[in-house]
Design goal:
The protein is α+β, with helices and mostly antiparallel strands. It has two domains: 43 residues, no CATH class; 56 residues. The protein contains two helices and six strands. The strands form two sheets. It has a four-stranded antiparallel β-sheet with strand order 3-4-5-6, with no helix packed on it. The longest helix has 9 residues. The protein is elongated, with a radius of gyration of 21 Å.
């Protein structure tokens, strides 16, 4: 019998007890070229990543510059000024802030 990973995961996330404990992994964590079928047969479910929204910035131009040390500087040019942030690459393709775009919060 083929297991329904989606139903098992949804059951566990809703606080109920599934027939089998669902084990999941994100698609980006699997090494390129790896054969996932063996892991699936042993009960590992694949979580596909996807965006559920679209970012629209009609009056903002975003430019990204890669620094010599490998960090990425992102400049957002807006009608009222620029925001600059600095990121470094973390594990599995994630970006970690080194410098946030908003540096100081000025009280009203």
């Amino acid at each position: 019998m083929r297991r329904n990973f989606r139903a098992e995961t949804a059951t566990a996330l809703s606080g109920e007890r599934p027939a089998h404990l669902p084990c999941t992994i994100y698609e980006g964590l699997i090494p390129a070229g790896a054969d996932f079928s063996l892991l699936r047969e042993r009960g590992l479910a694949l979580c596909a990543e996807g965006s559920v929204h679209e970012v629209v910035t009609p009056n903002v131009m975003v430019r990204t510059f890669v620094e010599p040390d490998g960090t990425a500087r992102r400049v957002r040019e807006t009608p009222v000024g620029n925001l600059t942030s600095l990121h470094r690459h973390g594990g599995y393709g994630a970006l970690a802030f080194v410098e946030h775009p908003i540096k100081v919060i000025v009280p009203p």
